[in-house]
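Risk register update: the risk of archive-format incompatibility is retired. Evidence:
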Amino acid sequence: MSVTADPGPTLPRWPLLLAAGLMVAELVAIGVVFKHVIDFDCKANWSRQACSSASMALVALYCLIGALVLFAMLRPVPLRRLLSGAGTGATPLAINLAGVAVVFVPVLLLREGSGTAAMGASFAAWSVGMALLLGGLALFVAPVAAWRRFLAQNGATLAPLAVVAALTPWLSRQLQPLWSVDSIADATFTAVTWAIRALGYDVSADPATKVIGSPDFLIAVDPVCSGIEGIALVTLFVSLYLWLFRAEMRFPLALILYPLGIAASAAFNVVRITVLLVIGLEGNPELAVGGFHSHAGWLMFTLVALGVVALAQTVPVLRRDAPRAARIAPPPFWSDPTVARILPFAVFMLSALAVSTLAQVPGAAYPFRVLAMIAVVLPFWPIYRALDWRLDPVALLGGAAIGLMWVLIPVPEGAAPYGALAGGLLVLWFIARGIGTILLVPLIEELFFRDYLERRLRFGSGPAWVVLAAFLSAALFAALHARWAEAFVAGLVFSVVARRRGRIGDAILAHGIANAIVFATAVIGGNLSII
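Archived output:
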């Protein structure tokens, strides 16, 4: 006789999706409006402690939501019982909308130069408004009686998890001094000094201040430039990679990727600073500081990450060998669906980092990036052509909504990204930019983020894993965009569109429509900064 675990009741999908969508949209709107839209510099009017408290309170809320998602993955059955009656009334949504209205009351009060006059009223409005906003959503997904039963049965587990999550922003602030690792900065400075002198440059180097260079060009190798951030990023990347591919890796031998990745990151950082010095000493300080310094770190990290993946995939001793009978020969490289989803994105990112590092006006080199994307997309065209490309009205509407959101949120107008191009070259630049923005970028990004990465991030089969994977992929997608808040919302919408019918072609279509609206608006209005 076999016993099957109780999966819990069936969840009402659309009320829960509505509640999740409302919460994300409302929180993103709050963050965008109070940080980027209203004319109010918090630090110029309020104390640092007050500004920090307001900002960290919102971050603490995000951490708390993340903790609840984690609890849902660990204890899915109690949560399914709690949410089984979601969407039974409209009154909670009215409470939620009232909370949104109260949260935005400070928009009418906060003005540049007003000092602390509206500080008390603003904090009160935020506190009451957030209570109504979240309380309304909580009542929409479950009645009071269900919440009472849920907390009585799971409160002992949930309470400490929620407290730790809510305190995470303050704990991280207290741990910040640990990032100033002077020993790493000393080692980096010594290595850079040796390398630049080995190349024949006569430079002065002061170990006390860690300043190195000539009278015409000096740099300081402080703890921030020591490479500690790159080491931390590589450590996180290796951890994520080992977790995602844990079934394929041989432990504990696979842990050698940590010291190898960290050593490579430290070495590349020395190379980065040395090359920066060479560029500056050779009479190009603007390129050294404005281009290379800003982007070479990400280029080096990308190379290290790709090296770690290549090492893990090609060194047999690091991988578990499947039984001989179960081994299946991989498909040819240009016919591999996984490669077709990863390689174009890698080329897309590397091309961005390369032009940002080597060109004084990176935007002017966009046509070369388009050529690189086309060169890597064309060999995989049979795979892409086999996708389901039927038009979907929901995808069209979703893409149009994202496009309108993107162009309606104001952004300051910047310098022309095409630099000094004019005449026929400028026309070709606009054509290349349109092809890349409307056709290539949606294909490459959606295949990687929504079709590959999001699937890999679903470590389980429950709905909580689906939601978590969507949030994580949207967050990583947003990290690649300067307008991260809008990109995060767009990532979630594209994820919903893709999952609605299980067709990544719908997400690509929505992304393409959104980008077409943005590109057309940018060209007609003359403000290419919105792209």
